[in-house]
Amino acid sequence: MGPYGSAIMRELIPAVESKFRGIGAGWARGAMGGSTGGWESFAMPVLFPDDFNAAFAACPDPVTFSKYTTIDIYRQSNAYYYDSAFKRTHLPGYRDGYSGTTWPGSVTPYGEVVATVEEQNHRELVLGEHSRSCGQWDVWEAVFSPACPDGFPCRIYDKLTGQINHTVAEYWRDHFDLAHIVRRDWATLGPKLNGSLHVFVGGSDSFYLSNAVMDAQDLVEGIDPSRPTGIEWVIGNHHGRGFQHCFRGYEYDSEGNPLPNSITRLTYAQAFLPRMAARFAATAPEGADVTSWRY
Fold it and tell me: Which InterPro entries does this entry report, sorted A to Z (predicted)?
């Protein structure tokens, strides 16, 4: 997606399909991925709704910027601190994940803050200016921002101070805030996303990506509360605690315990491809090939 979205969609994907016996039609295309791949999987049917028929987005990067991890780029004045007239409280940027007695791990079970948004961004600023650190925040800026006169991505906020540029935020909203776009274009997007979009995130995602998914769910389901949207939303929790980053849906061991992300993150294909194939077969146009690709 981002600046290269059209080239990927109109040139790269058809080239791959022609080489590897792809059907080359929207009803037979699907996307799946986690983290940044989860955002891509969510974005494809939203930005190219006629070109995809199934999408499984796990732990996606922020799908709405009312919660750009922990930052509301529309209402807050600063990306590093909560707005307050009397004190400066840092916004959290990363928390440790779940570890417990059922599935022990290397982290604590408390979800404690490990790094703030300011610390993460200042590290990137040391590594490279003009969104060139190769860090996650700079990567997002390179995708979502327009080019400034100097040729580099326009800053969503001052990297040193955290002051938010609300003009850039408006551009982000109109072009890449996926929940905003779904709500704005619901009359045409709604029927196409019905039954095709599936979103999964851990209730305690390490990067706070669960915040945006919950905001997106509320925003989309609030369009018409009397009618189901047909979009699947799964907020993952187990033993009263939220799954951390890379949750892709529930899977259980022989004793009925939910498996940890360290296992389920290795089985995306096994979890999603059968559901994708069933969707394609059930919605294929009359006379379409629904057998040669099913082994």
Answer: AB_hydrolase_fold, Mycobacterial_A85_antigen
Strands 232-238 and 197-202: parallel
Are 131 and 138 within 8 A, CB to CB?
yes
Q: Are 39 and 63 in contact (CB under 8 A)?
A: yes
**Residue with the two structure tokens 């910027």:** 65
Give residue-wise pLDDT tens across range 137-156: 999 999 999 999 999 999 99
Separation between Cα atoms, residue 73 and residue 166, nearest integer Å? 7
Q: What is the spatial distance between Cα 191 and Cα 126, in angstroms, rounded to a whole number?
A: 46
Contact of 229 with 221, CB cutoff 8 Å: yes
CA distance 90 to 266: 34
**Can you tell me the distance from the alpha carbon of 92 to that of 204, in angstroms, rounded to the nearest whole number?**
13
| Statement: the pTM of the whole predicted model exceeds 0.70 | yes
22 vs 10: CA distance, rounded Å: 14
- In angstroms, rounded to a whole number, what is the distance separating the alpha carbons of residues 45 and 20? 22
Among the residue ranges 16-30, 88-102, 161-175, 248-262, the one predicted with the least confidence is 88-102
Please name every residue paired with 81 in a beta bridge, in sequence order, or none if there are none.
90
Say how many Å lie between the first and final Cα of the chain, rounded. Answer: 31
- DSSP, collapsed to helix, strand or coil, labels residue 276 as helix
